[in-house]
Design goal:
Length: 217
Amino acid sequence: MRGKKLEYAKRALGHFLDRLRPSDEAMLVTFQTKPRVVQGYTDRLDAIRRALKKLDGNGSTALYDAIAAALDESRRAQNHRKSLLLISDGINNYGSARLQDTVVRLQRSGLELFAIGLESSLPEDMEERAVTRAVLDQLSRAAGGEAFVVSDAHDLGRICSTISDRMHNQYAFAYYPPPSPEGRWHPVRVETRVPGLRVIPSKKGYFPGPAAEVHPE
């Protein structure tokens, strides 16, 4: 990501930081040929803003490696509930991590993932657009989040505001399932009997026992 798209992404993320609460903390991870933790978790959001201003775009897109790095870094966070916000203008084309492994890591982590894909409007990029939408949708669904795909970088600010509202306005449901073998994925489906009321997003399941890092919500 570079040029105007990068500048709009910086502004959108700055707007997102402005909507965080005093007790919230944030980190900043970039991904090019390799992921890099630019700023670890901190409640001093000015440090994130300063780091944002210095970002430039270059190199390949190690998307899955970046998610893995962010999940590792998230263990250092002080707050129990954590979310990841991913912004990318391309599909994964570099790195060692693979999609299915990344999906399983997200499921085990218990973190939400909200993803924004900046797609090209050129006809020759139609196949890549379809792949981008499918990948981001699979990643966000695995983490109980949502994926947004836009073709106009001007929409980034609006989408970041929507994601901020999603993060800060949620209900948590919990239950105690019967004992079951550890290490096996257990699907969960949340439904409502109220006509017209949709439940989005929600966790799709959990790993019981030591493999699970948080309880399902």
